[in-house]
Write a structure and sequence with these properties.
By secondary structure, the protein is of the alpha+beta class. The protein contains 10 helices and 8 strands.
Length: 301
Amino acid sequence: MRARLNLRPEAAESLHGLAAPPPFVRVLKGHSGAEVVLHSGAGTSLVRKTAGTPAQNERLLRQSARQRELLACGLRLPRVLREGLDEHGRAFFEMEYVPARSLAAILCDAAPFDAASVEMALGRMLGLFQMTEDGALPARPFHDKLDQIAAAVPQASALTARLRAMDWEGIPSSQGHDDLTLENILVCPSRGLVFIDCDEAFVSSWWLDVAKLCQDAMGHWCMRALYLNRPGSVAWLNARQRLDRMAQMLGAMAARLDPRLPARLAQLTALHLLRTLPYARDAALTAFVLARAAHVLKESP
């Protein structure tokens, strides 16, 4: 039986209603059709995340509950302040605003950070998720996902066929963050690492969380703008070197947590990269993703 990361009762309290947040400040980056807005005024700053449509309400409220759950387990996430429905019937939840930079931005800008603290925080989160393992995931969802990508992006068919032929058995089923990119890890001067934007994936496994980190560290997804706009620049070279060191740290961590994982990390990372293709807005980004996925598979043990 899978161990659950349980909410403490006091963490489940919330206010519901239509009370207005502080004045609008600016739109933040939204995911999965959600609207994410920073509000500030009268000495209060908060972030309101709102479902794109009422049809997305249940998913958004599950994200809110998940955020409360992980926070209650001692992981650092923004505290959920309130949830409810807006005047259009769309679910929202409000959370504290964390003044910080993403780990992706810090790595790509060659800014200083405490690598040991990053490794400790990631190891703690992944170790908690590892404790919730409950058997293995079936291979079918992975095959189906690869088939969907190939149908949506014919240019990826050779890579999806190569991945489909690999072994997808034995990947542990567990709880996870489900969108653990370096862009979703904030480095806050007063609080250390803060995780944001936990989601729900087509399957959940802490192995996929490690691979999501490697989508940036090995696949260089978080430096796509540098690849497309400033390839070969000093900034590009610096970002590559720092991400390579991050990839080495993640590989060593994966081996400590589960010796089976390093041999499967490249295929899981390539899958994550290819999953971005249906959302690619131009041919250059598609070409970048295909090249990086091929590189990750070529460099695998």
